[in-house]
Amino acid sequence: MRSRAEVDATLRTAKLNPAELLPVVHCLSFGPQAGAGECCLLQLEPGLCAELEAGRSLVIRGEKDEQAVLCSKDKTYDLKIADTSNMLLFIPGCKTPEQLNADQASCNVIHSQIAGFSNNYWELRRCRPKLKKLRKLLMEDPYEGPDSRKDQTLTFSKYTTEDLLSLIQASEEEILHQLQVIDACKIEGFWRILEFDYEMKLLNHVTQLIDSESWSLSKVPLCTCLEELGSLEPREMIEHTLLSYGRKYIDDAGEVYFEMYEDKICRAIAQMLLQNAVKFNLSEFHEVWQQSVPEGMTTRLDQLKGLALVDKASRPETIFLLKVEDLPEDNQERFNSLFSIREKWTEEDITPYIQDLCAEKQTVGALLTKYARSSMQNGVKVYNSRRPIS
Amino acid sequence: MVQIVISSGGAGGLAQWVLVELQGEVEPRQSGELAGSLLGDLHYTREGVPVLIVGHHILYGKVVQLEKPFAVLVKRGAGEPSPAGPHACYTVTALIKTKLLFKTRPKPIITNVPKKV
């Protein structure tokens, strides 16, 4: 181990003036495990440092053929290895000038061992959680109601929260949030999506009851719904329907009510009408749709963003089902898919189909600039593909 | 799907290490192993400028507070290949919030200047 005398001799040879230096010196040497390559460096995005200091863990997730992601409890990051031409040495117990000035220790030779070194580190970039797989998994076995024979036989296509965590490249909070967004419910410990016809059957029970009781759409009582409909369907399913299609609140008397979501109900009924036809004559559709929704609700085309598309070029105008959740998750694939459905899009039409691709601070405009080319058509700005679509 | 956990010793207080960033590569003088051998002396001037004497060179650097700190991960666990078996996991040994960056050209130390005869 180097002594103070040796250090001073080196300073003299180097012609450095000890008076200009702090009295403390670190003699750096490579520790016994330094070359073993057991340590690696992970560059932390804002917030992750605090997570680790609080004792929370991070998880890297991915199938062999997937790009790895790193998840905290509520965020997902792409994980890549960044190379540097410089050498990075990591040294425990090495003090900075501030620390040395603050700590007037008497010993002025500190022998520091370099724990390891590297010329690369793991780099993170916040990304959208890969949630398309969630819907795909739950659609393997949608819940068709208690009378369905299916549930008694198939048991392997059902997923608990733990199962989902081990299959989906997303953080737990992002997964739980998405489960809520897609109106999944927990039945016997497993997350299930309702089969659409069954969901409509339940919704229909609720809307018919609202109609026959002449309730206000913003004051639907939970208790009465359960009493009246409990003989037709499981109470959990009635309540789930109310939670999916309404906002729960408690009045001053402590009673639970729901304020029904007009837009969401109209949208669901539109889906029911549209999914049985390739396309619908637009004016006929408007008529049938308005007649099909509950009394007091008004249908509007903008309720169908991301669900259906109007073809204004056809005579007569038509409307057809196009669900954003059926489209690819990858940006380039999504645009390819959209441009193969329609060659030129206005920003208004395409926005609902690319909105979910936007990264944290990205706008739809930025996406369009990157993946599409614009031109004018009849005085209107339209977007088409940058590359030929087969 | 593979799940690799990075756990933090954390709540008890993680060690704070320092990163030293050097240009180029470091090679052992006697072409032996690096492990155990000396790198050099690290001084600071009274203004807080780090000065590193490595072999025949003096390097002047600067103290940089990292905008994005690093976590030092140590691999644990066997990482057996079987799909049902335990996967590798990592432990966070320390955090690095400061680095000493040496990127100016090293000044050579001339030890023997022959006198002009």
TrEMBL record, chain A:
InterPro entries: Dcc1. Keywords: DNA replication. One of its GO terms (cellular component) is chromosome, centromeric region. The keyword Isomerase does not apply. GO terms for biological process: DNA replication; maintenance of mitotic sister chromatid cohesion; regulation of DNA replication. Belongs to the DCC1 family. This is Sister chromatid cohesion protein DCC1. It comes from Aquila chrysaetos chrysaetos. The lineage of its organism: Eukaryota, Metazoa, Chordata, Craniata, Vertebrata. The gene is DSCC1.
Automatic annotation (TrEMBL), chain B:
GO terms for cellular component: Ctf18 RFC-like complex. The keyword Phosphoprotein does not apply. Keywords: Cell cycle, DNA replication, DNA-binding, Nucleus. GO terms for biological process: DNA replication; mitotic sister chromatid cohesion. Its main location: nucleus. One of its GO terms (molecular function) is DNA binding. It is found in: Nucleus. The keyword DNA-binding applies. Belongs to the CTF8 family. This is Chromosome transmission fidelity factor 8. It comes from Aquila chrysaetos chrysaetos.
